[in-house]
Design a protein that fits this description.
Layout lengths: L1 H7 L2 H10 L2 E3 L15 E2 L2 E6 L4 E6 L11 E3 L2 H12 L3 H14 L2 H11 L32 H17 L3 E2 L2 H21 L5 H18 L3 H10 L3 H14 L10 H24 L12 E2 L5 H36 L13 H30 L3
Parallel strand pairs: 6-7
Antiparallel strand pairs: 1-5, 2-3, 3-4
Helix pairs in contact: 3-7, 4-5, 4-12, 5-6, 5-11, 6-7, 6-8, 10-11, 11-13, 12-13
Length: 383
């Protein structure tokens, strides 16, 4: 078993997959690959933890200019663009912008279920990402994070199959087609993590297995959790306090990583949406289909497509505007509270600033999505 795990974690296995897909290292004149491993934390530099003020200070390495960017040759451009697109489908930005569209254009019930399952964490098992060389790394932002499990694989698998299982009782569709779409989407995201060199095969398999186990063990309790989330007077208190607590207890790393901020983003969105859906239920303004469930899928006409596009554009503008306003205000208040100059770019990496700022910002985004945007659609005659 140990030999199997070592084999699945071998970076050469990822490099072979990249070559099979037409992605090859370009070698220098002397035959050595030019994309050597960079120091953990950021391209061409290193992160140093300053214990005196609990801050992470980024210092440029003296040899930063001598480190070459990864050089590679693409011999299969259709696969290259397909996997880059698939990798973006696992990012937080994609889910923050696309999951609300399910609320606005299909069914808030499905959006709530998907957001609940999206709330996942990582960096508990601190195994490194595949080394380069032999692997070609097409992303650098998350290179400082640990790799096991792949949260892209977890999110894609859990969201795809949660949508499939939840939609059966809400919308009329052919299950086999839905299953094919769920398998295709999750597979593309998983394979993209190998193609971009961000994860080993073991990372991806563990992400898929963890999501499968979560789905298996939580599925029988989904209805009970829905009832508590929507009707219990303790629901908003539990959502806010529990998710804020989880934000502060995120596993500490020996270097700065964007993963903590990404995790707080997810937890904040979940907290805001949970409170918003609870408020809708108390105000008797929850949007429910009028027909007997499951309802047929809406007919795609020019009018419905145009209305859907208008709702999506207005909703995204509302969410982005909320994010920008609340983020700026929360950072200003925290800078003032901790007496930090606003031009200090490293200050927002401090836990006492990053966590509350992101949590408040994305809780507000979740509230606007679940509580206010549909009211705007009604006022504008888009519903």
């Amino acid at each position: 078993m140990l030999q199997l795990l070592e084999y699945l974690h071998d970076p050469e296995l990822v490099a072979r997959f990249q070559r099979r897909c037409g992605l090859f290292l370009v070698e220098s004149v002397n035959g050595a690959p030019v994309n050597g491993e960079k120091p953990r934390g950021a391209p061409g530099g290193r992160w140093e933890h300053q214990d005196s003020n609990s801050n992470y200070q980024y210092k440029q390495s003296v040899c930063a200019d001598k480190i070459s960017r990864p050089q590679y040759e693409v011999r299969n451009w259709p696969l290259h663009f397909l996997f880059l697109l698939s990798a973006s489908l696992g990012n937080e930005v994609f889910y923050i912008t696309c999951l609300p569209c399910i609320h606005w254009n299909l069914d808030p019930f499905l959006c709530r279920r998907l957001i609940n399952m999206w709330t996942v964490m990582k960096d508990v098992l601190k195994l490194p990402r595949p080394t380069s060389p032999p692997v070609i790394k097409l992303e650098t932002r998350v290179d400082a994070e640990y790799g096991l499990p792949s949260t892209h694989a977890m999110a894609a698998t859990s969201i795809s199959f949660t949508l499939l299982l939840s939609a059966c009782s809400r919308v009329q569709f052919q299950f086999e087609i839905g299953l094919l779409m769920a398998v295709t989407l999750s597979s593309l995201v998983c394979l993209s993590r190998l193609y971009t060199g961000m994860h080993s095969v073991l990372d991806v398999l563990c992400g898929v297995l963890i999501s499968a186990v979560l789905l298996l063990f939580t599925y029988p309790f989904w209805i009970s959790f829905d009832s508590f989330q929507l009707t219990s007077p303790f629901s908003p208190v539990v959502a806010l306090t529990l998710l804020l607590f989880l934000s502060y207890t995120y596993p500490e790393l020996d270097h700065y990583s964007t993963t903590r901020g990404d995790t707080v983003t997810i937890l904040g969105v979940c907290a805001g949406c949970s409170v918003g859906y609870w408020a809708n239920e108390q105000l008797r303004q929850a949007s429910e289909p009028q027909q007997t469930l499951p309802v047929p899928l809406p007919t795609l006409t020019a009018l419905t497509v145009a209305l859907g596009i208008c709702r999506a554009l207005i909703g995204i503008v509302a969410l982005v505007g909320t994010r920008q306003i609340v983020k700026k205000l929360s950072l200003q208040m925290l800078y003032f509270w901790y007496m930090v100059p606003e031009n200090d770019e490293n200050a927002r990496m401090r836990k006492e600033i990053e966590v509350p700022s992101k949590f408040v910002t994305y809780t507000a985004v979740g509230l606007v999505n679940s509580l206010l945007v549909n009211r705007v659609f009604v006022l504008l005659g888009l519903l």
